[in-house]
Every structure is written in C-alpha cells, then in structure tokens.
Amino acid sequence: MRLLLIRHGQTPHNVTGALDTAHPGAGLTPLGHAQAAAVPAAVAKEEISGIYASTLVRTQLTAAPLAAALGMDVRVRDGLEEVSAGSLELRSDTDAVHAYVGCLASWMRGDLDRSVPGGSTGHDFHSRYDRALRSIAADHDAEDTVVVFSHGAAIRVYTALAARLDPEVSTELRIMNTGMSVLEGDPATGWELAQWSGEPLGGLDLEDRLAHDTTGESAEEALDD
C-alpha cells in the first residue's frame, strides 16, 4: 500500500502557536483553504483509492477539495487525531510548548513511556494511530494508494516510529500545513518512508513565514525557541 499522510491546512491556532488538539478543533484560515485547494493538483498523478480524515474539523475541511475533484467521499476515521496536549491544551507559552514538544522528541527517540502532561504516553498514541491505519488498510488492496488527512505532530511521530528513522533525523523533520509523508508497505510487515514533503503541497507561495506553527516545527526548532 502507498499511504499519503497529509497535514491539514492552516488554522488560527497554527498562527498563534496555541496547542489545539481537542474536539472539534479550529477551522481553517483563508490561507488554510487556499492550501487545501492546491492539494488536488499536487497529487493528480496518484491513483487514489480512498480519502480519509480525522474526527477534527480541520482535516475534513482540508480533504474536501480533493474529494470533490475525484468524486469521492471523505471517510472520517477515529484514531487519526493529533497527539493530545492534555493539560496543556490551548496554551502557547514557552513552558507548555517545551513540555509538549519535548515529549514528542522523546517518543521519536524511542522513549514511549513518557507522557504529555495530563495526556497520553507514546505507547497510547502509537497504538491508537496504528490501529486506525490498520483498519484503513483492511479496507483496501495491497497495491492501493490511500490519502489520510491528519496532523503535524501525529504524522511526524508515527512516521519516525513506523519507518524506524534515525532519531537525529526524525527530530529535525518539520511539516508545514499540507506537507506530506509518503509511506509504502503495510501495518503488518512495516513501512518505509518513500517521500517527505515538508513544504505545502501547493508550493512555498502557500507558506506563512510569520506563523508560530508549534505542531509543524521540528522538535529541534521548537525546543530552541
């Protein structure tokens, strides 16, 4: 299977740096809608068999233009949500950001026992995200290409763990809004990272250089702020 994990378009909290991970979550900014509108052309060469999104509003809004272009439905799947910020929810202060991102970095380095304050461990996150992808894989053939609209931290952590990336490499990965991780394989036999596109799929004209995008920055960048 070819799995395209695409981050949602920009939200107001991606501009301010607030840790927005709870339901239903924020919608998209005008730039976020423009980023979403650029996705169909960017993936036009892919033979897509299914489109999925998390239960948070922003992923479903980002998936909508691709679904409309292909005449397909967006299938909302529980388990694809962002890494929960727990008691840090909607905070944007340095202490909160460092606590959240520091935990993500630990997970990418293999320490899955560590917990986000008031939130889940790495084991909890990986289990529920992997379970969601397994359920998606079960609905498709091995040669299918599937698009999953998900979240910055979740995509970075899952890719690092599933593709067994070098920790020093994984903690330096960043993924802007509508950036993409492409995994090939399946949940049973394992995944290989075929492509990492940290920039918006529509190009750098759709980047917001002034945004404080906590869940899209690399762990190294966020911890250095």
Explained architecture:
The model has no long low-confidence stretch (mean pLDDT 95). The protein starts with a strand and ends with a helix. A hairpin with a 3-residue loop joins strand 5 and strand 6. The chain has a six-stranded mixed sheet with strand order 3-2-4-1-5-6, with helices on both faces. The chain is built from eight helices and six strands. It has 225 residues and is of the alpha/beta class.
Short descriptors:
6-stranded mixed sheet; 38% helix; Rossmann fold; alpha/beta; 16% strand; single chain
Write the topology of this structure.
Layout: E1 2-7, H1 12-16, H2 30-42, E2 48-53, H3 57-70, E3 74-76, H4 94-108, H5 122-138, E4 145-150, H6 152-162, H7 167-170, E5 180-186, E6 190-197, H8 219-224
Helix pairs in contact: 2-3, 4-6, 5-6
Briefly summarize what is shown.
This protein has eight helices and six strands. The protein is α/β, with parallel strands linked by helices.
User: Residue share in helices?
Assistant: 25-40%
Average pLDDT confidence is 95
Distance between the termini: 38 Å
Query: Main beta sheet, described?
Result: 6 strands, mixed
> What's the arrangement of strands in the largest beta sheet?
3-2-4-1-5-6
Look up the CATH topology. Rossmann fold
CATH class descriptor: Alpha Beta
The CATH homologous superfamily is called Phosphoglycerate mutase-like
CATH architecture designation: 3-Layer(aba) Sandwich
**Low-confidence sequence ranges:** none
- Number of folding domains? 1
* Approximate strand percentage: 15-25%
Q: How many strand units?
A: 6
Number of helices: 8
Q: What letter string, H or E per element, gives the SSE order?
A: EHHEHEHHEHHEEH
General shape: globular
**Class based on secondary structure composition and strand pairing:** alpha/beta
Radius of gyration: 16 Å
